[in-house]
Amino acid sequence: MTTTSDSPETTSSRQGRAASARVHPAVETVAAYGWRLIVLAVVAIGIVWLLRQLWVVMLALVVGLVLSRGLAAPVRWLRGVGLPSALAALIALVVLFGLIGVAGWLIVPTVADEFQSLGPTLNQAVDDLERWLIDDAPVDIEESDLAQYRAQAGEAIGNSFRSSSGSLVTGAVAVVEGLTGLLLGLLVAFFFLKDGAAIRSAVVRSVPKRRRDLARRLTARAWRTVGAYLRGAVALGAVEAVVIGLALTFVGADLAVPVAVITFAAAFVPIVGAIFAAAVAVLVALATGGTGPALVVLVVAVVVQQLDNDILAPVVYGRALQIHPLVVLLSIVAGGALFGVAGTVLAVPVTAVAVNVISEAQAARADADTVDGPVGPASQEAAGC
Question: Which of 95-104, 250-259, 331-340, 363-372 has the lowest mean pLDDT?
Fold first, then answer.
């Protein structure tokens, strides 16, 4: 039986072809990560698409969670005096909206005319600022450029009012979607307040038994985060509204009450809301008081923001909102781009809950590693002794 052997030239050429066909390890690593990242991106896009299609439902869930968290203490007290859960939840919701209605009945007629004057006043202030930029500013700015920027800003604001499908819609459709979400949110809040403990137990039981302690920790952390966000936004908003309103009154500017209301509402959107409220206050002071009052209000707004950010916010929010300002900004922009105005308002609490839940999961893993101890040769020797 005869055997054939390859010549040295054939063997070397085959090895050369094999070497040329071998992929560089760096390329293999990039390819391995690349297709996984593509799969994750497709999944993320699918989740975002689904959330946009179910935006009204998501809005109802978030509104219901926020309302139920804010009314949890009164409902607990009502249960403590012997009321059934359903009746306690109903009374809490009725009292809340009754107080809102009474406050509106007392305040709205008084400041309605001022709110109607707010829009023209802001337009006048913007016109005055544009004239100063064109005529007296140290930089050369053309009137056509300012008109273009103003049109782009108006278009951006208009684009924020969109339907759940993401396309521009009439104001009527946006209002219908918002009202539908709010009404569903009331029903969700009622059932959360009535059956919150049972719902949480059902969620915990739905996970594997070995993960139930972690699920309890994560849900408790999310609940505390929402409560801290609400307390912080209300407290900081009240402080900023009172100070800005008093500053406008002190300098002799008009529309102090509407600006204070806007400042309070803007506190629910950290960083961006504060900047927006300060800009409105300065423009109102400029249009109704002049340059000097506007500068005074600007200084007051900056000082108040610094005091809130450096002193009050860490105490009021605690760990709940100890997230980097860049994360806050990106979440607000992403929420507005995906879900419009409502997404801008809800972006921060949703992001805060996500960040805190992830932090709690990491802490739970670290605690488990500490309890179990390292697994290695030393541990094996100790176990064998």
Answer: 363-372
In the chain, where the domains are located: 209-370
Does the pTM exceed 0.85? no
Torsional sign, CA 76, 82, 83, 84: positive
- Give the tens place of pLDDT for each residue, 278-329: 888 888 888 888 888 888 888 998 888 888 777 777 777 766 677 777 888 8
Question: From CA 103, how far away is CA 323, in angstroms rounded?
Answer: 34
375 pLDDT above the threshold of 60: no
162 - beta bridge partners?
168
Tokens for 380, please give them. 């094996």
Spatial contact of 193 and 70, defined as CB atoms under 8 Å apart = no
> Where is pLDDT greater, at 323 or 267?
267
Structure token pair of residue 209: 């038994």
Strand runs (DSSP E) across the chain, as ranges?
A: none
Amino acid at 343: G
| Inter-CA distances, 141 with 137, 146, 152, 154, 378, Å | 8, 8, 17, 20, 73
Give the mean model confidence (pLDDT) for residues 55-61. Answer: 81
pLDDT higher than 80, residue 355: yes
Residue 218 buriedness (CB in 10 A; 0-12 / 13-18 / 19+): buried
CA distance 42 to 40: 5
Q: 269: which DSSP letter?
A: S
Axis crossing angle, helix 85-135 with helix 171-205, rounded to the nearest 10: 130
User: 168 φ, ψ to 5°?
Assistant: -65, 135
Contact 89, 75 (CB under 8 A): yes
Contact of 240 with 267, CB cutoff 8 Å? yes
Question: pLDDT, tens digit, for every residue of 214-242?
Answer: 888 888 888 888 888 888 888 888 888 99
End-to-end CA distance of the chain: 63
Contacts of 238 (CB under 8 A, 6+ apart): 264
Average pLDDT estimate for 323-340: 79
Q: Which of 264, 244, 231 is CA-nearest to residue 352?
A: 231
Contacts of 245 (CB under 8 A, 6+ apart): 256, 257, 259, 260, 263
Q: Which two tokens stand for residue 44?
A: 């993320």
